[in-house]
UniProtKB/TrEMBL annotation:
Coiled coil: none annotated. Residues 7-148 form the DUF7134 domain. It comes from Streptomyces johnsoniae. InterPro entries: DUF7134 (IPR055558), HATPase_C_sf (IPR036890), Sensor_HK_TwoCompSys (IPR050482), Sig_transdc_His_kin_sub3_dim/P (IPR011712). It is an enzyme of class 2 (transferase). GO terms for molecular function: kinase activity. Keywords: ATP-binding, Kinase, Membrane, Nucleotide-binding, Phosphoprotein, Transferase, Transmembrane, Transmembrane helix, Two-component regulatory system. Residues 170-234 form the Signal transduction histidine kinase subgroup 3 dimerisation and phosphoacceptor domain. SUPFAM superfamilies: ATPase domain of HSP90 chaperone/DNA topoisomerase II/histidine kinase. This is histidine kinase.
Length: 370
C-alpha cells in the first residue's frame, strides 16, 4: 500500500528532529579524546539511525530495541531513539510499550550504582536527563495513542448515533404513515364493501357512498403527500400534528362513513392538553376506530376520554369483539397495536388491550403534568 504524502512529511519532520537534536548534544556527549576513526563510525551510525526513522511505521518495536542497544556504545543516537520509542508508544499496545520501556530503562540502576562507586556529577546528570527524555517520549506517545482512540471512539459513537437516528426516523415515518393511511383506507374499504354487498341500493345512497370513497381517497393522497414531503424536506419542520380537540372531527369522519361512534369527552379544557399527550391520544382513538371498522364495522363504538392536569389523560375505546360484522374482515398487518404501545411508551404512558366478554377494550394512560 502506498504511503500518504502526509506520512512522508511527518516522517521527514521526525528525521529532521533527530538530526537537529543529535547535533545539539554532540559537543556534550562525545568524548574529547575520540579518534578520527571512532568519530567516523559514530557519524555513520548516526546517519543510518536518522534514515531508519522512515521505516519506523513498519518495524517500530525492532527499530526501538536496536537503537536502544546501539545507544549503549554510540553517543549520537538519542534523537532517533526518542522518535522510535514515541512511535512504539503511539502505535503499539500498552503491553508491548511496557516491554520496550523496560529495555530502554534497564541501564538506569547501573548508572546509579556507577555514580555511587565512581562519582562523576556530569556523567550522572547526563544519564538522568537521558532517562527523563525516554520517559517523556513514551509518555507523549501514550498520550497521542489515547487521544487517537478517543477520537475514533467519538467518531464511532457519532456514526452509531446517526444510524440510530435514521432508523428512528424511518420507524416514526412508518408509524405515521400507518396511522394516517390505515384510517383513510379502512373508510374506503367499508364503503366499497357496502356497495358490493348492496348492489341494488338506492341511487342516493350509492352516490353518497361514492362521494365518501372519493373524498377518503383524495384525503389519503393528501396525507401521503404531506408525509413524504416532510421526508424529502426535513429542514422545513414536521407536518401539522393532531391535538386532543381534533377528536370531534375524527369521530365525525367515522360517523360520516356509517359507523356508530359515541364520543364521551370528559376533559374540561382539551385545548390545554400537552401536545404529546393530545397527539398520542388522537392516534390511539384513530387506530381504535380503524380496528373497529376492520372487525366490527356495523357495531357501536364508544370512545371515552377523561382526566386533566396532574391526573393524566385516560383514553378508552370499546367495541364488540371481532366476528360480529357481516362483511369480510379488512386485511391488516397486525402492527397497529404494537405501534400504539410504542407511542404510549415514548410519551411516558402505557397502553393495554384485552377482551372482556363480548367487548374489546383498548385503554391507555398518558401523563399530563399538573
Amino acid at each position: 500500500m502506498r504511503r500518504k504524502l502526509t506520512n512522508w512529511l511527518v516522517d521527514a519532520a521526525f528525521c529532521l528532529f533527530a538530526v537537529v537534536f543529535s547535533m545539539l548534544i554532540a559537543d556534550s556527549v562525545l568524548p574529547a579524546d575520540l579518534s578520527a576513526t571512532a568519530r567516523a563510525v559514530e557519524d555513520t551510525l548516526w546517519a543510518l539511525a536518522c534514515a531508519a526513522v522512515f521505516v519506523r511505521r513498519r518495524w517500530p518495536v525492532a527499530l526501538a530495541v536496536v537503537l536502544v542497544l546501539a545507544g549503549i556504545w554510540a553517543h549520537l543516537l538519542t534523537g532517533p531513539t526518542l522518535v522510535a520509542l514515541f512511535t512504539v508508544a503511539a502505535h503499539r499496545p500498552p503491553r508491548v510499550t511496557a516491554w520496550v520501556a523496560a529495555v530502554a530503562l534497564a541501564p538506569a540502576p547501573l548508572v546509579v550504582v556507577r555514580q555511587v562507586l565512581e562519582p562523576e556529577p556530569d556523567r550522572f546528570a547526563r544519564g538522568v536527563v537521558f532517562f527523563f527524555l525516554i520517559l517523556g517520549s513514551i509518555g507523549w506517545g501514550l498520550y497521542i495513542r489515547s487521544r487517537r482512540q478517543l477520537i475514533a471512539s467519538l467518531r464511532e459513537r457519532a456514526e452509531r448515533a446517526a444510524v440510530d437516528a435514521r432508523r428512528q426516523a424511518r420507524e416514526d415515518m412508518a408509524r405515521e404513515m400507518h396511522d394516517v393511511l390505515a384510517h383513510r383506507l379502512s373508510l374506503l374499504s367499508v364503503h366499497a364493501g357496502a356497495l358490493e354487498f348492496h348492489p341494488g341500493a338506492p341511487p342516493a345512497e350509492v352516490q353518497r357512498a361514492a362521494g365518501v370513497i372519493r373524498e377518503s381517497a383524495h384525503q389519503a393522497l393528501q396525507d401521503l403527500r404531506e408525509v413524504i414531503g416532510v421526508l424529502r424536506r426535513p429542514e422545513n419542520g414536521e407536518r401539522p400534528q393532531p391535538v386532543l380537540t381534533d377528536l370531534e372531527r375524527l369521530a365525525a369522519e367515522s360517523r360520516a362513513a356509517g359507523m356508530n361512534v359515541a364520543l364521551d369527552q370528559r376533559v374540561g379544557a382539551p385545548e390545554e392538553a400537552p401536545p404529546v399527550a393530545g397527539r398520542t391520544a388522537y392516534r390511539i382513538v384513530q387506530e381504535g376506530l380503524t380496528n373497529a371498522r376492520k372487525h366490527a364495522a356495523d357495531a357501536p363504538v364508544t370512545v371515552t376520554v377523561s382526566g386533566g392536569p396532574g391526573a393524566g389523560l385516560t383514553v378508552e375505546v370499546c367495541n364488540p369483539a371481532p366476528g360480529g360484522s357481516q362483511r369480510g374482515p379488512i386485511p391488516g398487518a397486525g402492527q397497529g397495536l404494537i405501534g400504539l404501545a410504542e407511542r404510549a411508551s415514548l410519551a411516558g404512558g402505557r397502553l393495554e388491550h384485552r377482551q372482556a366478554g363480548d367487548r374489546f377494550l383498548l385503554t391507555a394512560w398518558l401523563p399530563w403534568p399538573g
